[in-house]
């Protein structure tokens, strides 16, 4: 049976709905405890959930920088359409396993309604690469934020902490090198060849390359072209993706303030609280991405929040609260993203 775009859209929709239902019934706290945490959050839930309107808006702008460089004369992809595909793509990524790969096929499927499939594929792959590339920069910068705070005596510095920071920095430097090679030469053909090294998939990889070598080569050429020909769009997209993580840290800051953690108050105290929030988010996302094969990183994200918050000398209860409220926010935005799949996206 031939799969039409509408049938594939429906498949993604029902998979997303099923994932949300499963998440609701496998929540790692009782509904009584959940209600208590929600009551404690109170009106703070509004900025905690609402800040993601801004975060996703910045993500959409980063993706738009890439898409704009691939449009031919007379073509147009509206801002609202990119924004909706951004939210829905992340909703599917959160809800699916294997490192959150559900959103990219959906974005390619939908964007190919506006531009040809090769350019749609390359723009989605480029944005996914930029999203991960910005992660590494966020983690790298966080190492130096921690070092500065340690010099000021605000956070502890032990041999174990120093070793961890060194490993993270080296890990990021290696990633910068790998990404630079990928941006210069493309990565799609290498990925397909890499899949062929997995037991049982060698035959599929060889057949896929035989049938689609020319198309894959064109996609790789388009990936390399962004870095080579449109450096302004490349760096604008990278800066926007990095900035989205800085803004996302406000979510953690709101919850710290809710618990009365403000580092003494005043402008200096709020700045320190914000820097702590960046460190908490950085460590948690690093931990979650290292073990990213579970839907919504079930259990991993919670552990990351608790460990990162405890490392700054804060209570485990705060870590549990932050992880639960973030989980609720994720479920709400996953539901919004899934519902947006059924909103007419043609401009």
Quick one: how many beta strands?
Answer: 0
SSE class: mainly alpha
Radius of gyration from the alpha-carbon trace, in angstroms: 21 Å
| Amount of helix | over 70%
Question: What letter string, H or E per element, gives the SSE order?
Answer: HHHHHHHHHHHHH
How much of the sequence is in beta strands? under 5%
Low-confidence stretches: 293-298
Per DSSP, the total helix count is: 13
Topology, pairings included?
Blueprint: H1 5-25, H2 31-41, H3 45-68, H4 79-95, H5 103-111, H6 117-151, H7 159-185, H8 188-195, H9 202-229, H10 231-258, H11 266-290, H12 300-311, H13 316-340
Write structural notes for this entry:
With 347 residues, the chain is an all-alpha fold. The chain contains 13 helices and no strands. The protein is globular, with a radius of gyration of 21 Å.
Keyphrases for this structure?
347 residues, 13 helices
Summarize the structure.
The chain has 347 residues and is mainly alpha-helical. The chain has helices at 5-25, 31-41, 45-68, 79-95, 103-111, 117-151, 159-185, 188-195, 202-229, 231-258, 266-290, 300-311, 316-340.
């Amino acid at each position: 049976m031939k799969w039409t775009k509408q049938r594939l859209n429906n498949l993604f929709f029902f998979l997303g709905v099923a994932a949300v239902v499963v998440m609701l019934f496998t929540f790692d706290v009782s509904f009584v405890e959940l209600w208590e945490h929600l009551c404690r959050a109170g009106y703070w839930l509004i900025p905690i959930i609402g800040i993601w309107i801004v975060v996703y808006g910045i993500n959409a702008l980063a993706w738009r920088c890439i898409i704009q460089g691939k449009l031919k004369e007379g073509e147009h992809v509206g801002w609202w359409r990119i924004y909706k595909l951004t939210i829905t793509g992340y909703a599917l990524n959160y809800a699916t396993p294997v490192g959150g790969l559900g959103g990219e096929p959906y974005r390619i499927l939908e964007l190919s309604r506006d531009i040809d499939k090769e350019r749609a594929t390359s723009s989605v792959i480029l944005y996914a690469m930029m999203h991960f590339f910005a992660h590494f920069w966020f983690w790298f910068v966080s190492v130096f934020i921690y070092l500065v705070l340690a010099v000021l005596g605000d956070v502890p510095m032990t041999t174990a902490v120093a070793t961890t920071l060194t490993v993270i920095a080296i890990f990021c430097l290696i990633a910068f090198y790998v990404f630079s090679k990928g941006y210069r030469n493309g990565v799609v053909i290498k990925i397909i060849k890499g899949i062929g090294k997995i037991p049982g998939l060698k035959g599929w990889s060889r057949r896929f390359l035989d049938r689609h070598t020319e198309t894959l080569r064109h996609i790789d050429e388009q990936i390399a072209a962004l870095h080579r020909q449109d450096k302004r769009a490349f760096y604008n997209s990278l800066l926007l993706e990095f900035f989205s993580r800085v803004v996302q840290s406000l979510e953690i800051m709101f919850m710290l303030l809710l618990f009365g953690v403000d580092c003494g108050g005043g402008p200096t105290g709020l700045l320190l609280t914000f820097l702590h929030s960046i460190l908490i988010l950085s460590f948690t996302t690093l931990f979650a991405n290292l073990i990213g094969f579970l839907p919504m990183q079930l259990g991993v994200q919670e552990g990351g929040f608790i460990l990162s918050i405890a490392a700054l000398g804060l209570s485990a209860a705060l870590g549990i609260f932050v992880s639960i409220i973030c989980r609720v926010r994720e479920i709400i935005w996953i539901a919004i993203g899934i519902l947006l799949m059924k909103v007419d996206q043609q401009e």
